[in-house]
Design a protein that fits this description.
This protein is mainly alpha-helical. Helix content is 59%, strand content 0%. It has 2 domains: 3-104, Orthogonal Bundle (Cytochrome Bc1 Complex, Chain D, domain 2), CATH 1.10.760.10; 116-195, Cytochrome Bc1 Complex, Chain D, domain 2 (Orthogonal Bundle), CATH 1.10.760.10. Helix 1 (3-27) crosses helix 6, helix 4 runs antiparallel to helix 6 and helix 9 (153-165) runs antiparallel to helix 11 (184-196). The radius of gyration is 16 Å and the shape is globular. The chain binds heme C (2 copies).
Length: 201
Amino acid sequence: MTAASAARRGAAIAFAALALGAASVAGADREAGRRKAEVCAACHGPAGNSVNPAVPSIAGQPAQFVSTELFLFREGNRKDPQMSPIAAGLSNGDLNDLAEYFAAEKLAPPKHRTTPENAAAAAALAHKFNCVQCHGRELLGQQHIPRLAGQQPDYLLAQLRGFKAGTRADIDGNMTSAAQALSDRDIEVLVDYLAGLDVGK
Ligand code: HEC
Ligand code: HEC
């Protein structure tokens, strides 16, 4: 595939996923989502609150983000040996029901404790590198952009390194671009900060 055709394919996927996300409000059934989510707890923890530092919490993520990521895993754009087989069996209805359910669940307070030096430095980095512009002032996420506050630390570290290396799939290329400016040290400081943010929601 040429770079141009790869870009066109990426754009088409982004459009399809966004259209799916936008539709999620209309027909989604949160109670059906709760039943369909029973299988997810084995890895993502009770009600989407992960207890494994390497596995993401999905409680309280924006619904559009959850359906978009499930779509990307199902279509094979984002790949993971554990998550891909799960997503492969989901219908569009399942994606929307699951998204509606997890978006309404509360994120548990984080276990991670940020060091005071990193807290101050990272808040400045989050402004300097525009993290707050896309992920929201309190880093709670919006639409297809994920909540970062209170996310599991080892997971955040792996994703940021992946975006920087170009190995983590990305719906519109924005996050891969944003990660290029980060040094390895910036990434460590940001992760220590984000994983300890208790948003009290
Ligand atoms: C066998 C373990 C396992 C099961 C079961 C599982 N997941 Fe996952 N899931 C993962 C892992 C591991 C990742 C992180 C993959 C990566 O590092 O890219 C993930 C990632 C995700 C993401 C992306 C989160 C983010 O912040 O980017 C979503 C959404 C998700 N899973 C939803 C679900 C749903 C919904 C179910 C149930 C239908 C489910 N998962 C079942 C292991 C699992
Ligand atoms: C121009 C918008 C934009 C900027 C700036 C941006 N992000 Fe993102 N970020 C996104 C989008 C969109 C995604 C979802 C990508 C996808 O999965 O397709 C994302 C995903 C992520 C993820 C993956 C989380 C998960 O649950 O899978 C992390 C971590 C992240 N961003 C951290 C950051 C940090 C730290 C900064 C600042 C250094 C930042 N982002 C700046 C748009 C942005």
